[in-house]
User: Fold these one by one.
Assistant:
Number 1:
Amino acid sequence: MLFNSFAFLIFLPLFMIGYWSTRGRARLWVMFLASLVFYAWWDWRFLFLLLFSALVDYSLGLLLENEQDDAARHRLIVLSIVVNLGLLGFFKYFNFFADSAAQLSEALGLPVTWNTLQIVMPVGISFYVFKTMSYTIDVYRRTQRADHDLLRFATFVVFFPELVAGPIVRASRLLPQLSRDHRFDYERALSGLTLICAGYVRKVVVADSLAPLVDVRFAHPEAHSALSLLIGVYFYAFQIYCDFSGYSNIAIGLARILGFDFGINFDRPYFSRSFSQFWTRWHISLSSWLRDYLYIPLGGSRGGTLFTFRNVMITMLLGGLWHGARWTFVAWGGLHGLYLVSQRIIGPSYQRAVKSLRVPQAVSSAFLILLVFHLTCFGWVFFRAQSFRDAWQILSNIAAMQDMSFASVDNKILVLKGAMLIAGLLVVEGITLKPRDVSPARRLAFAASCIWILLLFGSFSGNTFIYFQF
Amino acid sequence: MREAKRFAVWFVVLAIVVIAGDRIGAFICSRVLLASQFRLSRIYRGGANADILVIGDSRGVHSFYAPAIETLTGRPALNLSCNSMSMPIAEALLADYLDRNAAPRMVIIETTCVVVNRGLVSELRTYAGLSKRLETLYAREHPRAAAAGRLFRLLPYDSEFFLRALMYLRRSDQDWINRNVIAPHLAASPRGRWSPRPHQENLDALGRLVPLLRARGIEVKLVIAPYHRSVMVDMNEITPGVTRSVPGARVMNYADAIEESRYFADGVHMNAEGSEVFLRMLCSDGVLQCHVEKPPQT
């Protein structure tokens, strides 16, 4: 079920009535069953996979907690990782690796025909696998106690607000919140509702208005001028940001109304002055997951410089691969790895130069924000393009700067609308630097404005969220 | 419980504010829409009083440059064409035009719009409040959206047409035409032969429209504007279909009339310069009664 679907409009009030009219285990059952309905709306057959994943990690968690022998515990955690990554590998990456192996063997002069399978990727598998895997790892590390309540654990895995596209809320945060009954809180409900409104504006107004303009440019880059493609790249940067942060806002807002705290997943990433800052502001739940369960176990920055660079590159390459079974995603992750490494090399010299030349802080900050944004956009070309060939065509056409006149841009009126929506978004993000306590009247004005904007500028074609495919 | 009651009150106030703002906003939007110089707004405001009307899809937009028609004929002209305009929409718009404005002397129909599917129907919501005919067309195709539009009055203004109405608030939209030239690589790569097929509902609408116009004493010209030579188009289906639907009609086929690439913006659309050359061709052929008659440049 999509948050921006008619079915969800019916589902949500029914769920709210069930949720607030029950307590204790009855409420857990309501959450669990409602989450199953939410997921089954897409394809009920994959419920079994979801429940299998939950059951395996629930059992392994209990075994890990009870087992005292280190070698046995090690075998259990390896089993958990193999099962989780096995599911992910089969459903998401099987054809990718089969195709890549076939291409490699052909390049080596050993043509082999591999059979690919018609595999449907279960929605949200990348998210719930990471969630359950982090649980067993935490239990293995003894930083998290195993949950003995199967219903509660299963609800943690299938909890619908964050099931299909995150944020990845870890067991240490969510399980304790599932253990107690939340009372309806007026302030929380108001802030949750306004967050949901803001999320819908991001998704339905900004992201979905930009989507057709981006799609047409990335589908046929050869048919567009340099300026038109450049606009396509900028628009994609904001499309993916508003699409995903919009989803996160809706998920976090929903959870807040229900009494849960998910934290934040985006914090104005395009205002970042460095790539390390960018990755503490973009998809925070994933970047912190990669940091805690990949980068630090690899050794983090505890070794020498080259060792740290190696760890950064491995983390970012795998982070890229997590997003999809395509080499362009790996290239995107690799680019961000290079950005982070380069920043560590060049950063100190840049700071010294700024100091010695007495460049005003504001000028330096503006320069860095623009630099980080444009390098990020460069990376988005690989992320969005279907192939390296397409990415190259887009980048080479832009670099050639052939026809930079606005007359060469298709759908001018919609392009202007997109530009105005982005400008509006940046202004709003600029003036709401820090979340503040606001009065109910202001929240009402904000929510009403969001609804009017939705009515006047929304795109109601029911586009799916980009991160569903990851 | 107390907290829930407070929230319920807040929510009810929000609903009231939203509905009130929706109605006020929709009223302002409707005023803006009628004040606009956009072609559809001019129909519904009334007083357009053009002698020559043009209607068609995007080929109608870019082949019949209204300022050039006015210069050549010395008569007020209005191009009502819109991208993806199908014939039932053209029929509704022309009927609405005749209801609100003086009848023109001539209507030129860019006839290839009989191959257009119902693409533009979803945009009609913006003007549906001003026209029963458009409202019927829109509601038939999008019943749920039409119902939503009756609940939230701002929704119909969520359209490209309304953005165009805003863009042309202070200036005429009749300069809407391509000004670029087809890219050399596109001009040099011929596509396969293409036989566009008319939709029966378009032919039916044309069959109703032409007699309606003629009954009002309006001269009707059915014209096929030029295509670029890279688009090897044949009219084997359009022309017979039209003559079957409109007894006694003559389709003036200029599909292959212009050779030079510089007169085209792409394979199927002319540009401003091309439109002027084409209009001069119509003058010399007597389709348009012009002051200035020069032979076409091609």
Note: The mean pLDDT of chain B is 89.
Number 2:
Amino acid sequence: MITIYNLSKTYNSNTVLNINGLSIPKGQSFGLVGNNGAGKTTLFSLLLDLINPTTGYIKSNNIAVHECEDWKPFTSAFIDESFLIGYLTAEEYFYFIGELRGVSKKEVDALLATFEDFFHGEILEQKKYLRDMSKGNQKKAGIVATFIGNPKVLILDEPFANLDPTTQFRLKKIIKELTEKRDVTVLISSHDLLHVTEVCERIVVLNKGEVVKDLATSEATLKELEAYFAG
Amino acid sequence: MVKKFLSLQWKQLKRSPAFEQKLITKIFMALFALYFIACFSFMGIAAYFIIKKEGDGLDPLFVVNSALIYYFIVDLLIRFFMQKLPVLDIKPLLVLPIKRRISINFLLAKGLVSFFNLLPLFFYIPFTIVLLIEGYDVFGVTLWFMSMLAITCTVNFINFLINKNNLYFVVIVGVLATFIGLAYYGYFDAAPYVGSFLNGIYTNYYYALLPFGLLALFYYINYNFLRKDFYLDGSIKKKVQEVKTTELTFLDRFGKVAPFLKNDIKMIWRNKRPKQVVFISILFVGYGLIFFTQSVYDNQLWIKPFIAMFITGGFLMTFGQNVPSWDSEYYNLMMSQNIKYRTYLESKWYLMVVATFISFILAIPYVYFGMDILYFVIAGACFNIGLNSFVVLWGGVFNKTAIPLNEKAKAFSNTQAFNASMLLIALPKLLLPIVIFLIPYLITNDLYTGVICLGASGVVGILFKKPIFKFIEKQYQKQKYATVAAYKKKN
């Protein structure tokens, strides 16, 4: 689904990302871990064509993302608050995303109904604009919005951060269900090794912009990751 | 401490996205500033001799004094719209061991270092030197000079207040408007009194106490105003707004661009800054009243297409020229969601067209001043819709300043997105209608040919909408990464 060719990003003379080749097959749940500055968000921004690669390119479903906009219909992402529209209520925001992705109001409502648990009564019918919600609730709204319109590629940057423990468990369940059908390619970055090993079948460790580990998740993965980051 | 503040400020300035503009823009800005400096300096040197020669034996200093009040008012007006107010991000300073007194004094002092305060010096200094050479009383002239500085600073602080506080705005504008109204209708003209008062500073020294007193007073008011708000729940706290939802389904007929239009209307309606801007754009419709009511302009043909453009172009000038910064807070979403750049730009264009059309409807009563004026307004509207809208959109490519949507002029946040570089981009918009009208008019010597050409320019623009959009889209695409990066740096 996603193939990375000779990708690098350099600011002035500082290389923040350098990936020779990486291929993510369709339906994989792909986890990205690494310390601050490892290049996780840079990689996601490159995937979304928000920054310009210095060398190389990314192909998503055989479309070079920096050349053409055709990857947009099947891609959705939540990186940070700049993916939210602060002056809308949560419902209005979901409907807006729905309209962009050709999903009717009814269908959006039906989808939202399945997330009632996840929302925990704090998102819908709140008479509050998104900008006035807490960081955690903003994140909930942003994450759920990415599920609208059956995207084939889903990119979530640190989805577990800022969420309360209950919501973290629910989110893990949602992501697992999503990837069970092997239809949606999910890319997740996280600082929480436990969460990411639970949710992702493949984990890539970035360090200073380079891939240092590429693991198929197994019983031993968490230990291995812990050993790597502790040392 | 002050040194630390200064270095912080210098870094903020140097690292702001607006400063990292293209060299050519910087050069233009420098020329712009130099032009004003040259004008002021020339006036400062020449004023004395011109008045001496032409002034029927009046004292040059007294003549200048009698005119200064008008300068002060214009100065305040220009400052209100153009002067950037000092910004100091206080949140991190609150918990640091810095005395509030120092932070606030620094904030206020920083506001004095501004082009608007330095410019008058280029008049006052040469003028004062000329007076001294011509043998005026040294002490009196020096006192007069110091008083002028005090008044300049006072105007600076008044502007600060009326920008930040609605009560002061109403009071001060009210007082000014009353005096201007009284003078205009011939009841009472305060200007000569101000003039003779300024003369008084030179003749009776103690008059100088008043300008310095005023300066101290306004400094004090500003200080107290900021001091009071220097808390987390003071000026920084966000107010939770009550939600009013609307469906706006009638906009669905616009098809692909409908979701954006609906969104933009909510954006305007629910955020302070765009609301302010739309309000100003409505005022633009009344712009013609200033000119069409005065017979002086009857024969000034070149000004008419210009005004016609302004009457219907308020929204273009205020809202349009800040596209795409209105979406800066969620620009990443816009750039990665299922949106074609083209559709996004087109939606903005429709919004401008609709708003221009509404302004046109509002402007129809201008027919009162004659059919010719209405023709001009129609031609101006056509030009705005068909050509100017594209120029405005194109200008948006260079917009690199994020707009915090829900922040009106507040004490500790950046307020003016409207700055001199924006004015520079605005220049072609202002000159185009005059050129398009004047050239055919001068060739044929027929008023209507000029008007028709102005209107036709809009029609031609519409006909070439597709290739024009293609061009504009390409420009936006080219700047996309730079824009995304710039919007990341919030003010």
Note: The beta strands of chain A are 2-11, 14-24, 29-33, 55-60, 63-64, 75-78, 153-157, 185-189, 202-207, 210-216.
Number 3:
Amino acid sequence: MREGRIGFLNKPPHKPYIFRFASIHGFKQLLSDNFSHNQPILQEKALIATYTPDQTPALESESFNGDWEGQLESLLARGRSAGADLIEIFLEQTDHLGVLAEQDAITSVNPSFGRGAGIRVFLGERDGFVSTNDVSKAGLDKALEEALAMLGLQVNGAINSSFEGLKTLQDFAIEKRNWFKNCPELQEASEHLLNGTSLLEQYGKHLQVRRGSYARDWQEVLVAASDGTFGRDIRLHQSVGLNVLAADGDHRSSIGRRYGTSNKPDDLRQWNAEASAREVCESAGIMLYADYVDAGQMPAVLANRFGGVIFHEACGHLLETTQIERCTTPFADKINESIAHEAVTAIDEGLTDEAFGSVSMDDEGMESQRTVLIENGVLKRFISDRAGELRTGHPRTGSGRRQGHTFAAASRMRNTYIAAGPHTPEALIESIDHGLYCKSMGGGSVGPTGQFNFSVEEGYLINNGKLTKPVKGATLIGEAKEVMPRISMCANDLELAAGFCGSVSGSIFVTVGQPHIKVDSITVGGR
Amino acid sequence: MNIQQPSPTIGLNCHALSDKLNQFAKTEGIRQWDLGAACSNDSSVQVDRGEAKQMKGSQRSSITVRVWNDQGLIGITSTSDLTDAGLGKALRLARQASDFGNPSDVPAFSPQAKAPLPDLHRPLRPSQGIKRLLEMLKQAEADLLGRHPSILTVPYNGLAEASYEQIYLNSEGALRQMKRTQASIYLYARAEENGRKPRSGGAVRLALGSQDLDLSGCIQEAADCTISHLDYKPIQTGNYLVCFTPDAILDLLGAFSSMVNARAVLDGVSLSQRESLGSTIAVPFLTLHDNGLHPSHIGASAFDGEGTPTRKLCLIDGGRLESFLHSEATARAFGVAPTGHAGLGAKVSVGPDWFEVSTTEGASSGSNLHHQKTKEPFVLIEGLNALHAGVKASQGSFSLPFDGWLVNQGEKISIEAATVAGDIRTLLNSIIHIEPDSVIRPGGISPHVWVEGLSITGEA
């Protein structure tokens, strides 16, 4: 299980950001920290109800599989005949379940499902993209025509193109067809969550709100393109989290942890609710009486796991080819040059075992690969997608990703982390006279000039090489070019954490990670 | 039966949808249900230095159906699959989910789901088509690039037009339907001068149709903003007199809207409690309304997710907490009428529509501070960033990066990088002036608001 956290989005989507979990509600957005209300009694019925979930997210006949080859080839051939350089079709069906437990009751069960298609047409370096919920033949024909028309192209009657047909289907889903039905049913999920909120009650003090939530996202995708690409995959993401709000007089602390994996139907069954509840309660208890941090410039040690948000915001986004296209990265011409301290090696990995950001193939049908971005401080590679390769010349890295069929793919991170170094975490702390230890991080973002920020949920002052009092309310800010050379020490305790990353192609599952790292100097915003 | 009309624009056939749901419900033995549906058709373009970068179009539709089972418990399912099979499955899943409904908090139909709707004058504007959008955006980009030699790119830009339809139906015969159109443009420029760090600035405009967009205003604001940040300095850490622009104060109040949210109050995560109503939470010259019906609110809807009519609601009057935002369920719990701020769910969310900040009628701060005239030094906060990470709504605290200027003797120097931190309760009681002139922004309407003694962290 990996760590994550709950947050909400209310900023325009022009700046890439990361947060640990998002929830979108019907017509309006809940603006209340995603906590919810007091329900004093265990909802007995929830535990004894006979639930027979519709465990067939798609009938075999409705599955997006090799049976679509003929229809897709016809669409692709027509697109090429119309004069497009390349056509890509992305078919998707999804099935989502969200369950919320508050205090000792299940208070919300939210199933949803859907189907849709996105068709992208390239002509030179331009592209047109159309998405639709209508995956009938007529719906797809219309979408293709609209995408072509955007580029001034028109379907003509004759099939006369150099399109040579699709390659043999690369089917990554064969071994995954039972994943969905092997996930916990609603009753079992409810039991796990209620056990979690009960453990919070057992271990916490001054808890005003106890909350557990579970989300399961199943997705089947089929990608076909006129260069012959033909791939199919099934993805399964599950996450479970505990949150509390502790209150004692004027003191308040809201603490949460969210854990997520991919491709692991048993995920919830193996969740260590006891350890999660203890961790959340301990943190809430400490932070309840913490002082606000004093502002200033100081060295900082960032803990492993979600501490990796610093690399994600300060550097990762700036290594996406979308940033080169927009001229918003300072690293565009720095390949084989030093951009970080020699202690830093950073990797973006497509298929880390069970990690939240893992994909067997990307959303453009390219098989996953491991990409070393920075090696001993030297920039080696950018994160690239199909359009990135076309427009910047950087070869694709299997990183074309999108939230769903309503977004065109873009170069995005997957499982991105700083590699382990030689030091112990204690050695990093001992090297600092006065500074900040960031044990738990919140979300962050990066702007078009490379200025990044992220919040610290749980921090401690470092004095004379030792951790002292807890502090809250810190926001760390800086600029990518300046902070990367200041990461001077990496510990030997690499761990990963789950999160959601929002950017040009929507909100996607990602992993961040790092060992404990030391930043020689950073601006700590506080009071 | 055709649920999605084969229209070149948009259209859900609500009568067909209602008939279909009634038919499925009867088959499943479901006596009570309601449904929210939405569909949209939109086009958008992005450009890059005179060339089309990406053009997008989408047709989307979705429904959320709720059913009440024989025990009166509620279940819900959402889907974008509007085929017969999809609708049938949605109803079936909602029925199954109702076995897990929460007996302590069962939403009911809004008592106002059939009440007359307010007259919301929002004429539908015809689509101009993607080619016209592209021409307009290319011209806007060229115009912005020509405003200053340091503006080299407009990395984030977009022009979009969309038509929407929203429906609410229930098994007691309520039928709400609303169509609207909307267009938007955003331009965020990046500028760089020799030996200095890159700076950025931008602007957004909304309108009912793309032909109504204030392109020149958007270009001018984006250019002015970007240019004003070229000359920057770090700021010394300390406590400052701060003036929030309308955008910034609206963003901050929105991030802490759980203070006026009945759902959050009932959930125990609001800074307010039931008994907070009537108490003083801000300076006596601050008044706050939520007004989803304001003529300048482009995205206005005549009804909420439960079919309750939208209305103007006074939240804070003269610094006094007057009322909360409600759904049907929270209103019932408080013994008041729903206010038209609900979503649609098994547990119904509540949220604001469009804030109006103003000086209380007959009250005055006694100050004449003005962001363009005041000579004493102050920090002008243009926009707050990373609210998703830096706001702790249930604790009242915030620590946020911002864009802005240090203004001294009328001279504006952009602040290189800084954060502002504080507590919303303290801030509301530390407001020392609200300027007389209100400014309409995409997120609401507000004058500039002055606050004393806010903590700012800089890199000087």
Note: The first helix of chain A runs from residue 44 to 48.
